[in-house]
Amino acid sequence: MTSETSLNGARILHGYLGPQDQAALVAALRRVVAQAPFYRPVTRRGPMSVRMTAAGRFGWVADRRGYRYEEAHPETGQPWPAIPQEVLAIWNDVSGCARAPECCLVNLYRGAAKMGLHQDKDEADFDCPVVSISLGDEALFRVGQVEKPSPSGSVWLRSGDVAVLGGPARLAHHGIDRVRSGSSSLLEGGGRINLTLRVVT
Ligand SMILES: O=C(O)CCC(=O)C(=O)O
Ligand SMILES: [Fe+2]
């Protein structure tokens, strides 16, 4: 059963995906990762704690030169695989946006991986929301303001939850404080996968 809460303008759809839908998504992601393996972005500030890959026309890539969208995987040089139908169906249901997502970023959190407070603002268009799907271990999601990181609040995202950052909250600061390791057995090898869908151009 889905129940909806909101946190500084972010909509959280708790329990959006049931166990079967989550398993189908994991199977689809296995095919994505077979074509576009996870890599560890290394920025000027050092290696990121999450591993990343992507599907869609663009992947969001971070390296020592900065952050940007790229049409090829930074290690294989291959174009990104297509966004799975199951993922597009979620976007169509919750985004309220007529355009299709151009990037499905796939973040893998294992061990102490986390993500600092940031804004998703490397896109050319902010009319469509950012839609974020959680799979696997529970994560403490922090959402602050648009103009500044605080005041902020946090909510636990569980496997199958979907978060939507749209409208006035499209540019809200957000991040992952920590992941509760071992809280889900959905993913082989454990951890958490987050899918972040965005219109880029
Ligand atoms: O892992 C999450 O839930 C958030 C990921 C995120 O904010 C991003 O990739 O920009
Ligand atoms: Fe983000």
TrEMBL record:
<protein>
    <submittedName>
        <fullName>DNA alkylation damage repair protein AlkB</fullName>
    </submittedName>
</protein>
<feature type="domain" description="Fe2OG dioxygenase">
    <location>
        <begin position="100"/>
        <end position="201"/>
    </location>
</feature>
<dbReference type="Pfam" id="PF13532">
    <property type="entry name" value="2OG-FeII_Oxy_2"/>
</dbReference>
<dbReference type="GO" id="GO:0005737">
    <property type="term" value="C:cytoplasm"/>
</dbReference>
<dbReference type="GO" id="GO:0035515">
    <property type="term" value="F:oxidative RNA demethylase activity"/>
</dbReference>
<feature type="binding site">
    <location>
        <position position="174"/>
    </location>
    <ligand>
        <name>Fe cation</name>
    </ligand>
</feature>
<dbReference type="InterPro" id="IPR004574">
    <property type="entry name" value="Alkb"/>
</dbReference>
<keyword id="KW-0223">Dioxygenase</keyword>
<keyword id="KW-0560">Oxidoreductase</keyword>
<feature type="binding site">
    <location>
        <position position="118"/>
    </location>
    <ligand>
        <name>Fe cation</name>
    </ligand>
</feature>
<dbReference type="InterPro" id="IPR037151">
    <property type="entry name" value="AlkB-like_sf"/>
</dbReference>
<dbReference type="GO" id="GO:0035516">
    <property type="term" value="F:broad specificity oxidative DNA demethylase activity"/>
</dbReference>
<keyword id="KW-0408">Iron</keyword>
<dbReference type="GO" id="GO:0035513">
    <property type="term" value="P:oxidative RNA demethylation"/>
</dbReference>
<keyword id="KW-0479">Metal-binding</keyword>
<dbReference type="InterPro" id="IPR005123">
    <property type="entry name" value="Oxoglu/Fe-dep_dioxygenase_dom"/>
</dbReference>
<dbReference type="GO" id="GO:0008198">
    <property type="term" value="F:ferrous iron binding"/>
</dbReference>
<feature type="binding site">
    <location>
        <position position="120"/>
    </location>
    <ligand>
        <name>Fe cation</name>
    </ligand>
</feature>
<dbReference type="InterPro" id="IPR027450">
    <property type="entry name" value="AlkB-like"/>
</dbReference>
